[in-house]
Amino acid sequence: MPTSNDHSISDGGILSVTELTRGLSDLVESHYDDVWVEGELSNFTRAASGHCYFTLKDADAQIRCVMWKHLTQYVYFEPEEGMQVRVNGHASVYERRGDLQIMAQAMRQAGKGAQQEAYEQLKQKLKDEGLFDRERKKALPTFPEKIGVVTSGEGAALQDILSVLERRFPPAQVVLCPVPVQGLDAPQAIADAIAAFNDLPADDDQRPDLIITGRGGGSTEDLWAFNEEVVARAIDASDLPVVSAVGHESDTSIADFVADERAATPSMAAEIVVPDRRDVAHRVRDLHDRLRDRVTRQLQDARQRIDALVSSRAFHSPIRRLEQHRQHLDAIVDRLERSGERITEQARTRLDRLQSRLQALDPEQPLRRGYAYPTRDGDPVPSAESLQDGDLLRLRFHDGSRVAEVQSDTGDRDET
Questions:
Q1: What is the DSSP string of 127-167?
Q2: Do residues 145 and 202 touch, judged by C-beta distance below 8 A?
Q3: What is 116-275's CATH superfamily?
Q4: Could you tell me which CATH class the domain 13-109 is placed in?
Q5: What is the pLDDT at residue 8?
Q6: Taking the model in full, what pTM does it have?
């Protein structure tokens, strides 16, 4: 027999499983509609559909999590087992199993400090390698004919670039390489697009003169693809100049530091890479005016010189002018001839004096006048007192030599 208690249940106190789980879900969602939960990542799987399923746990509890495919593009790191993460979303109950779970909207590595630390470490690493050095920066061409753009094909950044280029410099052509600019696949896609532009042959119609890469503004996570090392390496390896245009003026990415030029916005990048057609037109007019003035002055100077020649006496009496020059030439020749004769006579007189001096110094000259040159044992005899009786002398004459013996002068002794 049913008791009074059983009777009260039959009057409507019994809930179906669906009603209970749905009520619990409503209760949970009303209290935990937007929460951040930190925990250790476990059992991470990516289904064929692209949806991600994982568990967050700590020392005392765990909770299942789900992130739909379209939201995974905002995750800028590869989730790994045991990684400490923070997940944003709302709590709910999966009614089919009655499981408590979090419907994840975003995922970050635990704490902003971890992300910032990774940013600073990569920035310092690339700086130490010299990737930020001014000496590595390439100059932008003054009048680029083709501009390569690496960005989303559907974003506002592309439209901003096209609008500014059309207004400032219509001759410039844009070659777009559309890529995702956020999500796990974005960094490699951006790097591959930059490399692809560089790999085009020089004569290829699609090869640009420079590259603009970037995207419009967003959160730090939205812009994170341009803080990845693979993008920085691709920019540094580019032979084509690269302009980085990421986010708004206050946003600064690692790509900005490595690029040859940094633009605060995509619109500013377009302004940097091309001149303003009005400035070009003004410069052309200025150069035209300067060239015209210079040619005019040269023509006036030439006309004045011609007028001076025409009005000169030489122009009207060329024969008389020629005769004057001929007379002047004859006078010069005459002076040269007289000068030559005078120089020759002076040289001949000097030569005669030198010959006379040479003859006076000739040792043979006294011998030819009858003198003899005495020597004793090959040495000259300086005086008679240096000789003794019996000394043998060699007397040298102009035509030969003889040997003589020295004897006392008897005549002198008799007189004494």
A1: HHTTTT-GGGPPPPPSS-SEEEEEE-SSSHHHHHHHHHHHH
A2: no
A3: Response regulator (3.40.50.2300)
A4: mainly beta
A5: 47
A6: 0.53
